[in-house]
Amino acid sequence: MTAPHDDDVADAAAGIDPNGQGGGEDFAFTSEELVDWVEGLAAMLESVDRSQNQHWCSQWWNHPEAVDRFRALYEQWLEAQASGGMSSWWIDHFDRHATVLFTKRGPFGECGTTHAEKTARRILATEQPPPDWAW
Length: 135
Known about the structure:
By secondary structure, this protein is mostly helical. It has helices at 6-14, 31-44, 64-83, 86-101. It contains four helices and no strands.
């Protein structure tokens, strides 16, 4: 792996999604709706427990990975509400994301009961595949 280019770091800091799209896409919901949903979800969660080395941050919106995961969870929650698949949503979506979100190594791992700025944010380096590469 090589070190990331300055442009790559700037793109990541600017919120450009991994698929190259900017942060201004049109979604079926607004950022205000996402905030309301996350606040409602956080208010009802009993399974996130600091004594079990699980972490939460009241400034969840200050963690880019967490925001993307919550957006994905909310999209799936909307679909599950419409189709009556809430049990599957908990098992197939929430539980899988929760194992990353709330662990010590997850986005909130350096936060205690308040937000803590990460001392260093590692950006994974990538290289372009050769011109004849195909999948």
